[in-house]
Design a protein that fits this description.
CATH superfamily of the largest domain: NAD(P)-binding Rossmann-like Domain
Structural class: alpha/beta
Radius of gyration: 20 Å
Helix content: 25-40%
Number of strands: 14
CATH topology of the largest domain: Rossmann fold
Distance between the termini: 28 Å
Strand content: 15-25%
Number of domains: 2
CATH architecture of the largest domain: 3-Layer(aba) Sandwich
Shape: elongated
CATH class of the largest domain: Alpha Beta
Number of helices: 8
Largest sheet: 7 strands, parallel
Strand order of the largest sheet: 8-7-6-9-10-11-14
C-alpha cells in the first residue's frame, strides 16, 4: 500500500493505482499496512510514531531531505528525494534575484546598477537547479560559470567544475554567486565569516537552496559592513521544521527576500509538476527496482 500525504491529481493517482493508493486521506490511513510513502519529510516522524513501522520505501515530494527523522527510519528503507522536481521554477527565481539586485528593482532611491553580462557566476551545487541556472546565465548573459559540487548533473554547462576543497578560490572569483546546495552535514554553514571575508565588495549573492548553508550572523555582518554587497534569499533559518521569516536581515537596505516561494510555494502548477516527477520516479522504482535520487544516509547522520 502506498500512502501519499499530498492529494495527488487524477493523472498522478492513476500512475500509482496498481499498487494500491491512499491518496492524501491521513485520517483513515491504515498505517500498519503502508509499505511505501510519498511524503513531505516533516510529516514522517509523526506517521512513524503513530504506527507506520512497516515501510520499505520513502519517496519525498520535496527536493530536500534534511528534515527526515533518520533515527526513526530503518536502515533497510530505500529513500529517494525529489531532486530536480522544482529546478525550472527555482532557477527562474534565482535569476530574478540576480537581476533585481543588480538593477535595483522596486527601489525608490537611486542606486548604482551592476552589470551581469560576461561576469563570473559561481554556483554552489551542481544538481538540477544549479545546472538550470548555469544554462540560463550562460546563454542569456554570456556569463563564465564556475560550479562547486560533489557531482554535476549537466557538467557541460560549467566552464570550471570544482570540489568543495576549492571553495575559497571560487568565492574569490565570483561577481555573482548562487547557492543551490542541499542541507546536510557537509554543507551547513559552508558560507561563514571565513569564506565570506574573501568576496568582492560588489558581489551579488542569491540563496535558493537551504538557509543554513549560510551562517545568518555572518551574512548579516558582511552586508552591514559592505553596503555594496547585495544578498537575496528565498529560504530562511529554521527552528525545528518551521522557518523564521522575521530575520534581522530585513532591516538592511542591501537585502532582498521572498518567503520560500521559489519551489512548492510558487503555484499549484509548480506543485503538480513536482508531484508528477516524484510519482514517476517512485513508479520506476516499483516497476524496475531502479530510480533516481537515492539518498545517501551518511550525508545526514
Amino acid at each position: 500500500m502506498i500512502l501519499s500525504t499530498y492529494k495527488l491529481n487524477d493523472k498522478c493517482a492513476e500512475l500509482l493505482s496498481e499498487w494500491g493508493l491512499n491518496n492524501g486521506d491521513l485520517n483513515h490511513a491504515d498505517l500498519q499496512g503502508v509499505d511505501v510513502a510519498l511524503v513531505w519529510p516533516n510529516l514522517v516522524e509523526e506517521l512513524v510514531r503513530k504506527g507506520m513501522q512497516n515501510l520499505t520505501t520513502i519517496q519525498t515530494l520535496s527536493a530536500g531531505v534534511d528534515d527526515l527523522p533518520y533515527n526513526l527510519i530503518s536502515e533497510n528503507v530505500k529513500i529517494f528525494s525529489n531532486a530536480g522536481g522544482y529546478s525550472q521554477s527555482v532557477s527562474e527565481h534565482a535569476m530574478a534575484f540576480l537581476l533585481s539586485l543588480s538593477k535595483n528593482v522596486n527601489r525608490r532611491d537611486h542606486l548604482e546598477s551592476y552589470g551581469i553580462g560576461g561576469k563570473t557566476l559561481v554556483i554552489l551545487g551542481g544538481g538540477g537547479i544549479g545546472s538550470k541556472v548555469a544554462q540560463m546565465a550562460r546563454y542569456g548573459f554570456g556569463c563564465k560559470i564556475i560550479g562547486v559540487s560533489r557531482s554535476f548533473k549537466d557538467p557541460g554547462q560549467f566552464d570550471e567544475k570544482l570540489r568543495t576543497e576549492d571553495l575559497d578560490y571560487a568565492v574569490e572569483s565570483a561577481d555573482l554567486l548562487v547557492c543551490a546546495l542541499p542541507l546536510n552535514k557537509f554543507t551547513k554553514n559552508i558560507l561563514n565569516v571565513k569564506t565570506l571575508s574573501k568576496v568582492k565588495k560588489r558581489l551579488i549573492i542569491a540563496n535558493v537552496g537551504r538557509a543554513e548553508a549560510i551562517n545568518e550572523d555572518d551574512i548579516y555582518k558582511l552586508l552591514s559592513e559592505n553596503p555594496e554587497t547585495r544578498f537575496a534569499t528565498d529560504v530562511f533559518w529554521r527552528a525545528g521544521y518551521k522557518e523564521n521569516f522575521d530575520s534581522k536581515l530585513w532591516s538592511l537596505p542591501n537585502f532582498m527576500g521572498t518567503l520560500h516561494t521559489a519551489g512548492a510555494g510558487a503555484s499549484q502548477e509548480v506543485k503538480d509538476m513536482a508531484a508528477e516527477a516524484a510519482v514517476r520516479n517512485l513508479r520506476s522504482y516499483l516497476q524496475t527496482g531502479q530510480a533516481q535520487n537515492a539518498v545517501k544516509r551518511n550525508d545526514y547522520v
